[in-house]
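Reopening closed ticket. The problem is back. First fold of the pair:
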Amino acid sequence: MKRKIKLLILPIVFLFSACDLFLGLESNLSPPEVLKSLWNDFNNIHANLDLRMSNNTKYNSWYDVYNNKSDGYAYKVSSGTSQEELFDICGKMLGQLNDPHVGLYAPGGRSYSSYSGSGENFSVKTIREKYLKGEGDSGYKNFLYGKFELNSDIGYIYISSFINIDPETKDQEWGRAIDKITSSLANTKALVLDVRYNTGGDIYVMEYIAAYFASESKDYIKARVKTGPEPNDLSAPITYTVKSIKKASDNQHGYTKPIILLTNKDTVSAAEWFTMALRTQNHVKHVGTTTRGAFSARNDRFMINGWHYSISPERVTDINGKTYEGIGIFPEKEIRNTTSQTDDQLIYAFECAKELAGI
């Protein structure tokens, strides 16, 4: 089946006052109608309700979220519920899914999202100042790279996002800088590739960058789209392949020496696809902490009253059919940081890289 390029990106939350919330919005729909319609949309479109609700300690299912007679959301609204109250109720209902790709938005700028940082200790400033020698500058804000101060035979690349975060950069051309970066590290013996706190982005850009670290082309993900209200109402799978550039061109500088891939709980969305792609490669070892566990594309849709929401319409698995939704991808070795002043995860990855390189 033909592959489709999708955008995976986490919602950014902007909170404004209640006075601004519904400015100019008029609706003749009753609050119970709006809430029921939203619940139905998620019942029919969200591809991972069963997986998400399996971790909920309060409700047994998405049906229970709405219909539970003691605390169901259907019983929290009435015709007299204000628009401000209704927005909060809708947001809290969606929050039961604990899905980073789910958000709720209203005119005036108010937003709701269940996503928040994990609180894991991580500092780019610490990495730059304490561990890197001759820090490189790709010209774009998505990359930090260089060689380790302790041993310049070990290279380092940090990728903060797979979507453009530099307002001076047009479109997604920033991704092409990976060629310059891998070329500059060609004389190293191993590499630490860091995607901690990478919150996702564009699948096309992610696969373009991943190809530079693949020694062979490999299928790595299957994605199915929700087609109906039942958990298994899913389309035929679309298979995604990471394609190595190793033999694509003499002008491209892939890196296929030993790689230590470093993740944490803030590695999410397209960064998790990146993780799954590189885990198919024999020269890559995955360490750090478990990723966030949010793999679907993020689609935006309008509600019947003019608000809009984001939703996860895909069920994503590895090539063998295993899903990590709501769980995350476990590293081969779990290492945690205890403080942001030092980086124990990075030090461990550095030592692993040395070992794999025979240093």
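Second fold of the pair, where the issue appears:
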Amino acid sequence: MQNQGYIRSLDGVRALAILLVMTYHADLTRFGWTGVQLFFVLSGFLITGILWKERSREGALGYKFKKFWVRRSLRIFPLYFGYLAFLGICWLLFHFPNYYATYIPWLSTYTFNYTRTLAAWQGNPLFTHLWSLSVEEQFYLFFPLIVLLLPKKLTRGFMIAVVIAAPLIRYGLGLYYSQRGFAPEVAGDAVYWNTLTHLDAFFIGGLIPVCALDSSVKRPGRWLLVSLALALGAGLADFMVSGSTGYLTSLGYEHAQTLRFEHVWQYTCLNLLFASLILCLVSLHNRDRLKWLRRRLEHSWLVRIGRVSYGMYVFHWAILVYFYARFFHSTHFGLRLLLFIPYVALVYLFAEVSYRFYEARFLKWKDRFFPAAKEKRDR
């Protein structure tokens, strides 16, 4: 992959991902959960790009591991564990939520994504959505071992093999949970929350730098059109078979379904689509094409939202339920849509304050301990 430095439109992609998730929890869309899938693919692209460049530089292998993990930790840990500490204080003072003590061991070890099948499981908008951060952190833990230790050809082959095998992995997990007698909604969530389920999301994003697709694919716009047609066509077919209503809010992508093997094909279709989108934005052959898309993703407000999208993800559901719900939840779709704008502004404000006055202090330490190379911003 060529050294392209900071790509402004990728912050727009982050913004798109968090806004999708927020529309889902605000009951404006039923397909908004796909924003998490977009985050996974984008993380795979960015993290693999960092590691792929790192392996070609001089330096001890141990130093490279420490550099990656320390820099990642300084980006991820302060907000995450600060948020958990705040919840812990609330629990100690007000005993709220009363089952916080049950889940804090899982939350604090980034294994919360494996709690869905626990007996008497209870979700809570304060921390249920943090399952995806567990998946990301597990990826950050093991993936450097693959990229920095395996030979380049073996790395490429392994990643491609996982992408191909992923639908079978999801099928096997779905079969396993159903045979254990879990209800369909529990089995669907358990499959969706499993780290193995999303390896192809990370790897398909990672194949862009590993296979230098940004320079080798001459017409990435065609990939985007084909993957878009595939995703929309598969969603429409599933919607028609299901007999449900409200296609415009679901696009055939209901959350964590297994009845028609959605867990097998849905994630593959989405991963291909999102990887194709990223490829179009980073391609060396696409700078004069799709300018309209790039300009929209580089809009100043989208870039601002993308910059603090991590904080917005952490805060958004709690703000919706505990601060905004009395005004936001309405049976009238138009009113919910109208109120969504100030909701986004409020969540952005919380995340911006957190980023400027809390997270930024730790980000300064990244270059103090392990200076980055000349690449700009590996957030």
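Update: turned out to be a display glitch only; the data is intact. Residues 375-379 have pLDDT under 50 and may be disordered. The radius of gyration is 20 Å. Please close again.
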